[in-house]
RNA sequence: GGCCAGGUAGCCAAGUGGCAAGGCAGCGGUCUGCAAAAUCGCUAUUCACCGGUUCAAAUCCGGUCCUGGCCUCCA
């Protein structure tokens, strides 16, 4: 049983999919006017862990991540650089996919782009117009929130509160200041579409309703995003979608908390604004960034500092070193050790149980670290045989399908390096430590770290 | 002003009525030719603060302080 915190009810709820063993999930993706920053990636890493854990738990996940390639900022960027909208956004779309690879973010099943789904949005808007949930004013089309009594159910703002809220927008043409735009009419804007509902471009919210329902159906399981999306974006998605279909739009809404940098909101003016590229440029390990972003529970604020990133780098390299140590034992003859299986079962259960409880990753990781500590004890006594090592690597690879912290493919050493290691062992026996140290430091420059144990020398890749 | 989170060791971070997980860093021991790695031990009598309930509170209740977010650009 997997339980998640649903923003709609503000309670933890058991996930029961619309269709047995299949989860349909929508995540708000990037607006491609610039490279994504680590705050954005906190959300994407959270969604990645959710996606991967659902698969680990045996669900078939169908996931959509949209790409917003038309909005005020992308338009402004394209105009500034005198490019077409597609030319301008392509650079950032490519950048986003590169960044996803750096952080080992699993690909969604679909990455629909707003500009390629204008007809679907137009259809949805027509439906809303026909049902009286939308109206046209001066070429633009607005959603009439007074026609949707559930408005506010996700953000838990009450209707009066929303209606009385101040807005400094110059939106006098709307019936009510809080109505939001579905379609922005265009007179002399650089980018527009000619459609049945007029010349213009879509409002921000409509793409997510149109694209999610196209790929996932009118009612689907999970919708995720950052908490700042709760209002107005997700609230508006619910209004548009449920007003159009008369059906419940999404069963589980999951939102992750913000990332702070040195205790403050990240902003360009404060100079604490990091893109993933900035951090990689400083030489940080992308896997450590992934680890740091995922190890604070997704509903708690995460305070990002370079100090904690360096700590994460150490943790990640210890994990990798452990994995390599196990791999090194894959060729070691010896008896099977029954206790190993008990440790695996216990860690496996502990990991699953923790993750099932609203993705409690810290508790889940602590199971893994305790497991490692137990196994290291056996290494100390030289009691890990090939059969044991095989089981351990199998378990670690399975868990790694969720956490993606370990690099599972270890390259074999070349023949000449293996003979160098043998040569060094011989030198050590002959007390020729000068030669032994030379070989060790040479191999170190080749990225090979030697560990002399009382049972012989083993190597790991740095 | 309304709504929502958070405050646990030097740092990061679980735990939400029954002896305070785990990681990083540090110190001491073992191992080692020296290292590295590993390992053992130590590092929070106390969970922002003040009251209350209870046999028992980090956890529940009331209040206070601090930090952050949302309230129509936002992950």
From TrEMBL:
<keyword id="KW-0963">Cytoplasm</keyword>
<dbReference type="InterPro" id="IPR024909">
    <property type="entry name" value="Cys-tRNA/MSH_ligase"/>
</dbReference>
<keyword id="KW-0030">Aminoacyl-tRNA synthetase</keyword>
<dbReference type="GO" id="GO:0004817">
    <property type="term" value="F:cysteine-tRNA ligase activity"/>
</dbReference>
<feature type="short sequence motif" description="'KMSKS' region">
    <location>
        <begin position="265"/>
        <end position="269"/>
    </location>
</feature>
<keyword id="KW-0648">Protein biosynthesis</keyword>
<keyword id="KW-0479">Metal-binding</keyword>
<dbReference type="InterPro" id="IPR056411">
    <property type="entry name" value="CysS_C"/>
</dbReference>
<dbReference type="GO" id="GO:0008270">
    <property type="term" value="F:zinc ion binding"/>
</dbReference>
<keyword id="KW-0547">Nucleotide-binding</keyword>
<dbReference type="InterPro" id="IPR014729">
    <property type="entry name" value="Rossmann-like_a/b/a_fold"/>
</dbReference>
<dbReference type="Pfam" id="PF01406">
    <property type="entry name" value="tRNA-synt_1e"/>
</dbReference>
<dbReference type="InterPro" id="IPR009080">
    <property type="entry name" value="tRNAsynth_Ia_anticodon-bd"/>
</dbReference>
<feature type="binding site">
    <location>
        <position position="237"/>
    </location>
    <ligand>
        <name>Zn(2+)</name>
    </ligand>
</feature>
<feature type="binding site">
    <location>
        <position position="208"/>
    </location>
    <ligand>
        <name>Zn(2+)</name>
    </ligand>
</feature>
<dbReference type="GO" id="GO:0006423">
    <property type="term" value="P:cysteinyl-tRNA aminoacylation"/>
</dbReference>
<dbReference type="GO" id="GO:0005829">
    <property type="term" value="C:cytosol"/>
</dbReference>
<dbReference type="InterPro" id="IPR015273">
    <property type="entry name" value="Cys-tRNA-synt_Ia_DALR"/>
</dbReference>
<feature type="binding site">
    <location>
        <position position="28"/>
    </location>
    <ligand>
        <name>Zn(2+)</name>
    </ligand>
</feature>
<keyword id="KW-0862">Zinc</keyword>
<dbReference type="InterPro" id="IPR015803">
    <property type="entry name" value="Cys-tRNA-ligase"/>
</dbReference>
<comment type="similarity">
    <text>Belongs to the class-I aminoacyl-tRNA synthetase family.</text>
</comment>
<feature type="domain" description="Cysteinyl-tRNA synthetase class Ia DALR">
    <location>
        <begin position="350"/>
        <end position="414"/>
    </location>
</feature>
<protein>
    <recommendedName>
        <fullName>Cysteine--tRNA ligase</fullName>
        <ecNumber>6.1.1.16</ecNumber>
    </recommendedName>
</protein>
<dbReference type="Pfam" id="PF23493">
    <property type="entry name" value="CysS_C"/>
</dbReference>
<feature type="binding site">
    <location>
        <position position="268"/>
    </location>
    <ligand>
        <name>ATP</name>
    </ligand>
</feature>
<dbReference type="Pfam" id="PF09190">
    <property type="entry name" value="DALR_2"/>
</dbReference>
<dbReference type="InterPro" id="IPR032678">
    <property type="entry name" value="tRNA-synt_1_cat_dom"/>
</dbReference>
<feature type="short sequence motif" description="'HIGH' region">
    <location>
        <begin position="30"/>
        <end position="40"/>
    </location>
</feature>
<feature type="binding site">
    <location>
        <position position="233"/>
    </location>
    <ligand>
        <name>Zn(2+)</name>
    </ligand>
</feature>
<dbReference type="GO" id="GO:0005524">
    <property type="term" value="F:ATP binding"/>
</dbReference>
<keyword id="KW-0067">ATP-binding</keyword>
<keyword id="KW-0436">Ligase</keyword>
<comment type="subunit">
    <text>Monomer.</text>
</comment>
């Amino acid at each position: 049983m997997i339980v998640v915190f649903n923003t709609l009810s503000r309670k933890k709820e058991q996930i029961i999919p619309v269709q047995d063993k299949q989860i349909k999930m929508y995540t708000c993706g990037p607006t491609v006017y610039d490279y994504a920053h680590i705050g954005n990636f906190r959300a994407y890493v959270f969604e990645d862990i959710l996606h991967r854990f659902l698969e680990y738990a045996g669900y078939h996940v169908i996931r959509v991540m949209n790409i917003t390639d038309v909005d005020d900022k992308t338009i402004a960027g394209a105009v500034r650089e005198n490019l077409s909208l597609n030319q301008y956004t392509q650079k950032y779309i490519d950048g986003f996919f590169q960044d996803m690879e750096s952080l080992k973010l699993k690909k969604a099943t679909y990455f629909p782009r707003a500009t390629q789904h204008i007809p679907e949005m137009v259809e949805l808007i027509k439906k809303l117009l026909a049902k009286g949930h939308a109206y046209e004013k001066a070429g633009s089309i607005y959603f009439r929130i007074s026609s949707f009594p559930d408005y506010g159910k996700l953000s838990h703002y009450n209707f009066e509160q929303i209606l009385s809220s101040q807005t400094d927008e110059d939106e006098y043409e709307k019936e009510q200041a809080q109505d939001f735009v579905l379609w922005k009419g265009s007179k002399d804007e650089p980018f527009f579409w000619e459609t049945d509902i007029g010349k213009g471009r879509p409002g921000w919210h409509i793409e997510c309703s149109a694209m999610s329902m196209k790929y996932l159906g009118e009612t689907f399981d999970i919708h995720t995003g950052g908490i700042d999306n709760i209002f107005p974006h997700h609230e508006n998605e619910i209004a548009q979608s449920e007003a159009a279909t008369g059906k419940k739009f999404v069963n589980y809404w999951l939102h992750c908390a913000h990332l702070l940098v040195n205790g403050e909101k990240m902003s360009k003016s404060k100079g604490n604004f990091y893109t993933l590229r900035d951090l990689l440029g400083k030489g940080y390990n992308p896997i450590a960034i992934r680890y740091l972003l995922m190890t604070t529970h997704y509903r708690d604020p995460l305070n990002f500092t370079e100090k904690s990133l360096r700590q994460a780098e150490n943790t990640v390299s210890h994990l990798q070193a452990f994995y390599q140590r196990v791999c090194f034992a894959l060729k070691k003859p010896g008896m099977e050790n029954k206790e190993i299986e008990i440790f695996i079962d216990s860690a496996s259960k502990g990991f699953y149980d923790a993750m099932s409880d609203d993705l409690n990753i810290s508790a889940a990781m602590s199971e893994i670290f305790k497991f490692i500590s137990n196994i290291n004890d056996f290494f100390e006594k030289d009691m890990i045989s090939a059969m044991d090592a095989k089981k351990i690597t199998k378990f670690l690879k399975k868990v790694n399908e969720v956490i993606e912290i370990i690099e599972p493919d270890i390259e074999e050493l070349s023949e000449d390096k293996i003979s160098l290691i043998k040569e060094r062992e011989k030198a050590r026996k002959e007390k020729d430590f000068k030669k032994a140290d030379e070989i060790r430091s040479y191999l170190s420059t080749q990225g090979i770290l030697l560990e002399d144990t009382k049972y012989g020398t083993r190597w790991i890749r740095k």
